[in-house]
Amino acid sequence: MRKYVIMGIQGSGKGTQAKMLAADLDLVHISVGDIFRWNVQNHTKMGAQVRRTMAAGELVGDDLAESVVRDRLTQHDWNFGFIIDGFPRDPRQAEFFLESYDIDGVIELDLPDSEVRRRVLNRRLCGDCGMDYNLIANSPKVPGRCDMCGGELITREDDTEEALAVRLRDYHDQTGPVLEIFRRKEYVYTVDARPAPEVIQQQIRERLGLPPSQPENRGSEVA
Ligand code: AMP
To answer: Could you tell me the pLDDT band of residue 221, with boundaries at 50, 70 and 90?
Structure first.
């Protein structure tokens, strides 16, 4: 059983890296942002509650974020473990998490703010299947269309200059102290998020003491 947290500023590739590791190790990938986005897209009550906050790049309230994580983890479908992405985002969430679950490691993807801006403002998402694209490094074969399902590519509502400024500020102010809490417990493995995704993945595995990944085990859905 392996339990990991992956942290990193927006656009650092945490979703991509979490999916690669999850596919290879049979972990359940839990993305709190994806859960909120699903709720917004499907017009649920929770979606209505969080939509504006998310679009502004602000953090959703701790109570709601914690209950989403608690509910997801109580499904107990993670026989081989989980990798959680986008949580904890502030010291209160970190305390909640540490009280409730023991973890094997925290992966920190390190990326300078200038590179974050470049990546985030070029990010696109398939409106149908959720696949991630980047117009610089990973553009779709047909412009504006998803390679996997042909769906229309859209810009995330929070991938704007204004929302990004809020998210960068929050990351440094609130998520920075979370890393300090984890660092005190010697959980944090920091990895440079600038190289190609496969290179980053191998570095993560090395740091976690895992054998190199077998490319054929990786899901083809990985961006
Ligand atoms: P992400 O996909 O991780 O960038 O998350 C997208 C948005 O979802 C964030 O900007 C927040 O509005 C919300 N969100 C995701 N995770 C959390 C969390 N742990 N606490 C509060 N808000 C969150």
So the answer is: very low
Please state the pTM of the whole predicted model. Answer: 0.84
Query: Is residue 14 among the annotated active site residues?
Result: yes
In ligand 1, the atom with minimum distance to the C-alpha of 88 is 19
**Residue from 54, 90, 174 whose mutation best tests the ligand 1 pocket (most atoms within 8 A of CB):** 54
Write the CB contacts of 117 (distance below 8 Å, at least 6 apart in sequence): 164
Q: Write the burial class of residue 193 (CB in 10 Å: 0-12 exposed, 13-18 middle, 19+ buried).
A: buried
167 belongs to the catalytic site:
yes
Would the CB of 153 count as within 6 Å of ligand 1?
A: no
Ordered domains of the chain (ranges, CATH): 2-113+161-217 (3.40.50.300), 122-158 (no CATH)
Looking at the predicted structure, is the pLDDT value of residue 156 above 80? yes
When pLDDT is averaged across residues 146-175 and rounded to a whole number, the result is 91
